[in-house]
Specification:
This protein is mainly β. The chain has a domain of about 120 residues: Immunoglobulin-like (Sandwich), CATH 2.60.40. Helices cover about 10% and strands about 40% of the residues. The protein contains 2 helices and 15 strands. A 12-stranded mixed beta sheet has the order 11-10-13-15-1-2-5-4-3-6-7-14, covered by helices on one side.
Length: about 270
Amino acid sequence: MKKVYIITAIIFSFFLHSCEEVIDVDLDTEKPRLVVDAGINWYKGTAGEQQKIKLTTTTGYYSNTIPVVSGATVFVKNSVDTVFDFIEIPNTGEYVCSTFIPQLNETYTLTVISNGQTYTATETLKPVAAIESLEQKNDGGITGEDIEIRTYFNDPALEENYYMYKFKYSNVVKLDYYVDEDRFYNGNTFFSLTDNDDLSAGDQVEITHFGISRSYYNYMNVLLSVAGNTGGGPFQSPPATVRGNLVNQTNFDNYALGYFRLSEVDTRSYMIL
């Protein structure tokens, strides 16, 4: 009987091999759109004058490179019309400013002029509660056997606050992002929580908390849902079109992707014991 199984497997394998055929899938390719990675981060304890904005375009599904956008005019203006120019590092699509002045709860407007199109977005620089402490728990997860890191902060009372958490692990390549609102813990001590089942002694975890606006919270909820939070980052070209807060003032239908966000940021590193 064993011989019959072996012969059958060989015949079946040969059948599959003989029927192999390369199928080319013809995917519709949309005209490239501008992608704006404009996250202004003011880390606690720093002046925050060094900031960067990156411009790229969408590309074909099978492309291994992301085209950068050079030669654009990029600047940010605050509510009293102070202008902060972002100058490109030649041929990189990275535009930098070394004179930015961050101010909590101040309103800023981003302008990007590229290929005859003018894009604008307006946002507020949101504060973040300071990280107070970190705690390692060795009985976390569904099984009660996973290592978890809780990063505690005191949420301000009597106001709406929204947070984004980023986790960078030394034992995996991906970054994890989550967003949160303080509806159920307003004014109380709360924490962010790692989501890595494979942490072990000696692994390094970098935890970063961002203060974000309600609109950015809603945007990231949609983006992370679409992306499945399976790694990479929310600032790469998404697998589906998720509109941000950028508006094309020249041609409304020729919209850009990405989001103009301003956050106060606090971060800590922790080594698993």
